Amino acid sequence: MVDLLSVGEDVVRRAASEGAEEAEAFLVTGRRISVEVEKGEVKTARSEILSGIGVRSVVQGKVGFAYATSLSDALDVAVKSVKNALASKPDPHFKGLPEPGRVSPVEGLFDPRVADLDVAEAVEFIGEMVSAASSKAGVVSVGGAMSASSQEVAVVSSRGVSLSEKRTSTSLYAFVAARDGDKSSSGFEVNSGRFLGEINPSWVGFQAGELASTLLEAVRIETGTYPMVIDPLTMRPFIGFLVSAAANGENVMYGRSFLAGKIGQTVASEGVTILDDGTLAGGEGSASFDGEGVPTRRTPIVERGVLRNYIHNTYTAGRMGVESTGNASRSFDSLPGVGSRNVILEAPDLEVSNEDLFDVKRGVLLKLTEDRPNLANGEFSGMVYMGFLIENGEVTTGIREASFGIHLVDLLRGIDAVGREKRAVMGTISPPVRVREVRVAGPS
Length: 444
What we know:
alpha+beta; PmbA/TldD fold; 2 domains; nine-stranded mixed β-sheet; six-stranded antiparallel β-sheet; 23 strands
């Protein structure tokens, strides 16, 4: 086993000996396995070593960066990062590397079962998923993938940061195609998390197959304005995008986001709060510290409908005169960017039973869209890849060849009810939500 902190300390010392006034090492080691299935057959199955180091050096306000995929090259990378700094232009906005903060360990980030998983076991998981999906009427093809990674991450800097943490993650998804004569449809489902026990291949396959089979009977819908219930399966392009992209300090700083300059403005229904939480025990996006060694935190982005904060690393925070929110996101081969952790929608005042949530005369249940809003203006024009009609309080038949259009802020302001049960999907945690009015277009 490699002592990442020891390697990091050696690297920082070497950078200093080459003239760096400040230096930081970001190190990763671990393993990842992945299996892909196509048309019901395993297409690829592989295991790969994760290893690398990135070094950031600062000389007279100039920042240099270098990386390598082998820790044996760590000292050479330190030298290169200093040379790159000397060859760079000064950045007047760079205020230095972060000071050490008080880091509290986050529980539930490492699962030994994921660390010990081998390719053959992952293939078995895939086989269970394919079998469950194939049992549904009309299914003609099953695709999907499973991945599992185990890694140790470390950050060491000349400012006194010296942190390491072990983390695991795993995911499995199914994409199913069905056909009946000239009718065709598809279904999708996913599980993901830190622990192997969060993955249920039979359930994923069954759900995706059931959706594909049911949607064979989908009908066209007439163009109009409908109440829309959005399933947690597809909340990522809505609240996930709002935090990770629109409230991203880098996008705001460079004027790329429609939320720039809107702190203090109402952007959602009064009952809606949207958080970014890196401290959630067992959370898929959780960590004790971010890519710069800054402690993660729970940050309200939207509080009772009002935009309160953006997410930041130390650079964007410094540019905007605020503190880092612990959202530095990076790999060993890149400088820190900004990324969300666990995006959570809370609306306790709007919670209703499932029966009441679907209590509309005629509406749409959106199960999946693969589109996302326009970052510059917030307009969201998306396809309904999986959706159903709601008629007199009941989810009835599937709909096909439909699209929707609405500004993301208007959608969030239009939330008038949410379900009582949250679901975590790829780092986004939300109940189903109902929006009063969404424009839905049928085929022309």
